[in-house]
Amino acid sequence: IGAAKLVVVVAIFLLTFYVISQVFEIKMEANLGHIFARSALDAAARSTKPPRYKCGISKACPEKHFAFKMASGAANVVGPKICVEDNVLMSGVKNNVGRGINVALVNGKTGEPLDTKFFDMWGGDVAPFIEFLKSIQDGTIVLMGTYDDGATKLNEEARKLIAELGSTSITNLGFRDNWVFCGGKGIKTKSPFEQHIKNNKDTNKYEGWPEVVEMEGCIPQKQD
Questions:
Q1: In what order do the strands lie in the sheet with 100-107?
Q2: Per-residue pLDDT at 75
Q3: Together in a domain, 37 and 73
């Protein structure tokens, strides 16, 4: 009887072990299958994810061009943003923007940033802005964006100097208009990179200010 009991116990143990091992293997197979399926889905997602281009622009720039993206300020709340070659030159986060006209200078041959400044065209003086514009060296890329109001203190001399950088809208820039522009010192033609929205109480997105203007593109590298 003892031997028979032992055989039964061993048989139950073996049967239990077999059942457990079968269930475990099934679970292992299911888990492995789930892992492989997830890996395949992740790979597919990665392959269908659109590529990211410099400054987040919509397409890659050709060789010997610099990618840029910029936006004017939003009312008097959010400052403008200027990015060149994936380098954010000016933004509210960097805390280097201000009311008026925000300017970033970039080397036209290398794409390296040279300077960033803002000039208060509401409560400030236009004279330092004029001196700054006159000091820009030939071959420099010049990017400008308004914040709050960029026009009240602008005079004819300042507007003429900006027009010489390739701007066509600067002559019509008015109180609280939104404007972004990319040109160059020594440019021989009008710049194709300019956006301007008039301050109009009937169409303004924000009370007292028009909507933000954004612009992106590829700036040709200056050739010797």
A1: 113-119, 100-107, 140-147, 178-184, 193-197
A2: 67
A3: no
Q: Are 75 and 111 in the same domain?
A: yes
* Number of structural domains in the chain: 2
Query: Which H/E stretch holds residue 146?
Result: strand 140-147
Range of the domain at 216: 54-220
For 154-178, write each residue's pLDDT tens digit.
Answer: 999 999 999 999 999 999 999 999 9
Give pLDDT, residue 142: 98
Same domain, 21 and 72: no
Using CA atoms, how far apart are residues 124 and 118, in angstroms rounded to an integer?
11
Q: CA–CA distance from 186 to each of 7, 31, 87, 100, 128 (Å)? A: 100, 66, 24, 24, 21
Q: For position 51, what pLDDT does the model report?
A: 83
DSSP helix, strand, coil percent of the chain (3-state; round to 5): 30, 25, 40
pLDDT by residue (tens digit) across 171-214?
Answer: 999 999 999 999 999 988 899 999 998 888 777 777 777 778 89
Residue 25 vs residue 118, higher pLDDT: 118
Which token pair is 184?
């160059």
